[in-house]
Amino acid sequence: MRLRPRHPLRWAVSVSCTLALPPMAFAAGLPIPAIAAAAALAGTGIIVFYGLFTTTLQRQVPEQALSRVSSYDWFASLATYPVGLAVAGPVAAALGVHTVLWEPA
């Protein structure tokens, strides 16, 4: 709780990279305890990301614009999700499902 990074958004983005650990653990065929540890690390990463991001948002955005900026953030975040789902199929078709899922053929 006393950690005050000098560049909080850099830290936030850095720790958000831990979200890739559980799928990578699955793909590598690691045992269940290792996958659970990867998931716990990813959960911790998203908590740190969200805390740093929302704190920075509240500190840097004027109070009268906070609601609008927050809604734009959520809109952009949620709008890109279907784009990722739409791209996944063609990428899997082009590269092969096993390649995309990092499975041995």
Give an account of the 3D structure.
The chain has 105 residues and is mainly α. It folds into two domains: 1-60; 65-105. Helix content is 78%, strand content 0%. It is built from five helices and no strands. Helix 1 packs antiparallel against helix 3 (32-60) and helix 2 runs antiparallel to helix 3 (32-60). The longest helix has 33 residues, at 63-95. The model has no long low-confidence stretch (mean pLDDT 89).
Summary tags:
single chain, 105 residues, mainly alpha, 2 domains, 5 helices, 78% helix, flat
Proportion of β residues?
under 5%
Q: Low-confidence parts lasting 5 or more residues at pLDDT below 50?
A: none
Largest sheet: none
Query: In total, how many domains does the architecture comprise?
Result: 2
Give me the count of strands: 0
Q: Over all CA atoms, what is the radius of gyration?
A: 18 Å
Please count the helical segments. 5
- Terminal-residue CA separation: 46 Å
Q: Helix/strand-derived class? A: mainly alpha
> What is the string of helix and strand elements?
HHHHH
On the 0 to 100 scale, the average pLDDT is 89
What is the molecular shape?
Answer: flat
- The helix fraction, in percent, is over 70%
Short note summarizing the structure:
The protein is mainly alpha-helical. The protein has five helices and no strands. The chain has helices spanning 8-16, 21-27, 32-60, 63-95, 97-100.
